[in-house]
Amino acid sequence: MPDLTIHHMLGSRSERVVWLAEELGIPYKVVIHVPQTGSGRITSTLTDHIKDGKAPSAFLDGELIKESGYIIERLVQSFPSDNVESTPSLDSIYWAHFAEGRVMPACGSAMLNSVALQAVTKKLSPEEQKGAQAYQAHLAKLFRGSGLQALAEADAFLQTHQWFSGGDKPGIGDFMMLFPLTWFTKPVNPLGATLAPATLAWLERIKARPGYQKMMKRVADERKAQVPKPKL
Ligand SMILES: N[C@@H](CCC(=O)N[C@@H](CS)C(=O)NCC(=O)O)C(=O)O
Predict the structure, then answer these.
(1) From the alpha carbon of 71, which atom of ligand 1 is closest?
(2) Which domains does the chain have, with CATH numbers?
(3) pLDDT tens, residue by residue, 92-134
(4) Which residue, of 17, 34, 150, 188, has the greatest Cβ tally within 10 A?
């Protein structure tokens, strides 16, 4: 059995890896980090453990492994399970790259664009604030355009396929697409967009899976145990 420790920043890409570990049925430890955005970028206590502080980061039998796509491929290959496609299909490879190469750039940039504006606004004169807001709105429009295009392509695929693997079980593309697509079901989402029916049905299929439910419970329990409550 592996000695796996996953560093999970709440509400981040590392959710992909915790979900996969549950689907593969492998034992793992999880260290919870809470994101902070006050500085205008996203930081967390992860830098206490790993220099660049990126989530996900994991230790597999003592080896530091990073990049969600790499971690997911490594775990899928090393710990085959009937629940998950073990040898990625061409569809799986395409959608795994699409998640990080098309969906995340639009969503992540849109989110950082608003976080950055909030962080600098207080330091600017009213005139400068107007300029910053106009610039931010311009960028938001560009990110929204490319994000909506990506969401439409993903939905078109899901209209004729159950999973991004193209097969009858989730593959690396599904694990990679989960994080950006769940974002759109939250009250504040980066592009202010709603998901189309086939994508919503895919999310429902994931939420119904015991592996996904175990991931949600494990993260909630670990958060309760590891994150101190704010003093009132
Ligand atoms: N391509 C990397 C991106 C990792 C990444 O940037 N993660 C974000 C959280 S979703 C993060 O750690 N942000 C904090 C930072 O950039 O310092 C991956 O897929 O693992």
Answers:
(1) 20
(2) 4-85+213-226 (3.40.30.10), 90-209 (1.20.1050.10)
(3) 999 999 999 999 999 989 888 888 888 888 889 999 999 999 9
(4) 17
**Pairwise CA distance, residues 212 & 68, whole Å:** 17
Query: Position of tokens 């769940």?
Result: 182
Enter the tokens of residue 65: 């492994």
13 CB less than 6 Å from ligand 1?
Answer: yes
Indicate whether 24 pLDDT > 90.
yes
* Segment holding 194, helix H or strand E: none
Q: What's the 125 CA to ligand 1 centre distance in angstroms?
A: 32
Q: What is the full DSSP assignment across 63-114?
A: EEEE-HHHHHHHHHHHS--TTS-SS--HHHHHHHHHIIIIIHHHHHHHHHHH
Is residue 42 in contact with ligand 1, taking CB distance under 6 Å?
yes
The whole-number pLDDT of residue 232 equals 67
